[in-house]
Amino acid sequence: MKLTLDTGIILLALDVYAVYRAISRSHGVNSTLAWIFAILAFPGIGAIAYLLVANPGIKNTTRRKRLGNETIRKSISENVRDTHLKEQGSILHLSSVLTGLLPTGGNTVELLTENEYVFEKIEQEVLAAKLFIWVEYYIISNDETGRRFLDLLAGKAREGVHVLLLYDAVGSLRIDGKRIAAIRAAGGKAEAFLPVNPLRRRWAVHLRNHRKMIVIDGILGFTGGMNMGNEYSGVMRKKKKTLHFRDTHLMLCGPAVSSLSQTFAEDWAFATGETLSFPTRLHSAIGGEAIVAIVPSGPDQENNASSFVYFSGIATASKRCYLSTPYLIPDEPTIRALISAASRGVDVRILVPARSDVAIISPAARSYYPKFVNAGIRIYEYTPRMLHAKSIVVDENWGVVGSANTDIRSFKLNFELGALVVDTTFAKLLEDKFFKDLEQSKEIRSEDLNQKTIFARLFEGACRLLSPLL
Known about the structure:
Blueprint (H helix, E strand, L loop, with lengths): L1 H24 L3 H13 L3 H9 L4 H17 L16 H9 L4 E9 L2 H13 L4 E6 L6 H15 L3 E7 L8 H9 L3 E5 L19 E4 L3 E5 L5 H4 L11 E2 L2 E5 L2 H17 L17 E8 L7 H12 L3 E5 L7 H12 L3 E7 L7 H6 L2 H6 L3 E5 L3 E2 L3 E4 L3 E5 L5 H5 L3 E7 L1 H15 L2 E4 L1 H5 L3 H12 L5
Parallel strand pairs: 2-3, 3-4, 7-13, 10-11, 11-12
Antiparallel strand pairs: 1-8, 1-9, 2-5, 5-6, 6-8, 9-16, 10-14, 12-17, 14-15, 15-16
């Protein structure tokens, strides 16, 4: 009896402490209430989950990240950017204020949407590297694609190329340790971003580096939604009954690569304490016409850049706004912006996967459909594959391709990365791809929503309650 009483007191104290930390964290009413509900509904377990998954040390972690960014930016000459492109009132000005990275002109941008071609292009450019290869990924899988890529990096390190690899500790939990060791043995460096270890000063289960980028020789860079794994590279397409992805990536050439390099250098400094030096003027002399703003975002920012850029794009669209996202769990400002745009007569369309790789996501996303459809927003579910593309295109004028989903996690917790491209040719290509995807999608209509059973609605509503935690 004494053991039971003592245990109850311990659990009560743990719950009270967790509730106190949840309230004092001040991370939004919905998220806070959801966590308090979970803590009270599951005594002890809920509190432990909160302290592990929503580590109250977030402020210390993100503060160190901000300080690391400032150190790197002070060490980089400002003359590599075209300051005349930061026009007052523009989406480019907003981006530069939020990120501290000024947009640049004279870039070429290639839209990459065919899986096999993307990975062939990446391999080709990695093999051609002469000076350095800087790589940052959320997921590097321990599969054919992931292992092949790590072997490429080890081979280039043996050639004397400066190879740096930064991978997320949770996303790449199963990364091939022997191949990581081979990269290090060849002279390269490989580090995990925020390892999950309570004994370390910097750790957080939920603050993940969701960015995907490669910078090669300061001349070109890759970024977008594709991780390094079979489901992204097209290998899965050859296997029956397996989920393979339809994704979007970019190859950048021009001065914007300097901003991409700077973003990597900031993340590397945070993860390792090492300040990188690199030639900021090494970008290709081949001039393009695209204006590009690199948009890193994360919990280290007072105002999340991805969230604000998406919100501004939706809110200022005058004719059309097309959004692709694998995980549709929008926050309240995004919901209001979407409904407001549709109410103004803007053609607002959202493309999501019919089948998600995360079981709870699809029903949670579908709980938002009635409000959107009733407001005049057109929702489509992509049927051939798992749609993993993350993009927005506005008025056939500008678009963003990156790693950020239209969900609460990307807009609050994850470190994300995107490229905002102001160029009508690029925007038209992105819009054309969107409509090609719609040809293979099912539009969700009012009659579809009315046919849902009460059990389906209850299940979707229950999943939505968890959306602030997803």
